[in-house]
């Protein structure tokens, strides 16, 4: 009883694989994601300038945007280079904005002397801005415009 069932399942599986291969072959040649042949050289994308200076927020509770490049900043589980200027202990002497006190609260709301682990990776919320074209259309308006 077991042998005919195994033979039937094997035959069905082989038939499905062969049908899939036949469909894949009939769908046409492989197309490049870059939109050109492998041998063809494409021009490099233009480099967009980093926007400098503070950028206005578009809605309440929006995390501030980073007004400088962070491309060389180290940020891992042991090191956060943002804190070398923005931690409350050094922000005044560095002339940098201090982190919000919410960054020093743990999950239970207890006050900490150092940045909470849940707020350690700054670029989860705070992003640098560049003067680059939109990748997708956007009709967003700031909250103070829409009433």
TrEMBL record:
TM regions (residue ranges): none
Record's keyword annotation contains Disulfide bond: no
The keyword Signal appears for this protein: yes
InterPro entries for the chain: Multihaem_cyt_sf (IPR036280), NapB (IPR005591)
Pfam families (alphabetical): NapB (PF03892)
Keywords in alphabetical order: Electron transport, Heme, Iron, Metal-binding, Periplasm, Signal, Transport
PANTHER family attached to this UniProt entry: PERIPLASMIC NITRATE REDUCTASE, ELECTRON TRANSFER SUBUNIT (PTHR38604)
Family: Belongs to the NapB family.
Function: Electron transfer subunit of the periplasmic nitrate reductase complex NapAB. Receives electrons from the membrane-anchored tetraheme c-type NapC protein and transfers these to NapA subunit, thus allowing electron flow between membrane and periplasm. Essential for periplasmic nitrate reduction with nitrate as the terminal electron acceptor.
Full protein name: Periplasmic nitrate reductase, electron transfer subunit
């Amino acid at each position: 009883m077991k042998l005919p069932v195994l033979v039937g399942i094997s035959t069905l599986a082989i038939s499905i694989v062969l049908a899939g291969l036949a469909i894949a072959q009939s769908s046409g040649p492989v197309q490049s994601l870059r939109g050109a042949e492998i041998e063809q050289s494409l021009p490099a994308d233009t480099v967009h300038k980093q926007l400098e200076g503070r950028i206005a927020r578009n809605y309440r509770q929006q995390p501030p945007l980073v007004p400088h490049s962070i491309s060389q900043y180290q940020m891992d589980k042991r090191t956060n280079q943002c804190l070398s200027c923005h931690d409350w202990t050094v922000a005044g002497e560095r002339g940098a904005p201090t982190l919000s006190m919410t960054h020093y609260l743990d999950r239970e709301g207890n006050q900490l002397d150092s940045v909470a682990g849940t707020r350690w990776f700054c670029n989860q919320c705070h992003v640098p801005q560049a003067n680059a074209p939109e990748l997708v259309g956007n009709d967003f308006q700031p909250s103070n415009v829409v009433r």
